Amino acid sequence: MADWKTRTKLIHEGARRSQYGEMSEAIFLTQGFVYDSAEQAEARFIELGEDEFIYARYGNPTVRIFEERMAALEGTEDAFATASGMAAVNGALTSLVKAGDHVVAARALFGSCLYVLELLGRFGVEVTFVDGTDLDQWRAAVRPDTRAVFLESVSNPTLEVVDIRAVADIAHANGALVIVDNVFATPVFSRAVELGADVVVYSATKHIDGAGRCLGGVVCGSRDYIRKVLEPYLKHTGGALSPFNAWVMLKGMETLDLRVRAQAATAQAVAEALSGHPKLSRVIYPGLKDHPQHDLAMQQMGAGGTVVSLDLAGGKDAAFRFLNALRIVKISNNLGDAKSIATHPATTTHQRLPDDQKARLGITPGLVRLSLGLEDTDDLIGDLLTALQAA
Ligand SMILES: *Cc1c(COP(=O)(O)O)cnc(C)c1O
Question: Measured from the CB, is residue 263 less than 6 Å from ligand 1?
Answer without folding.
Answer: no
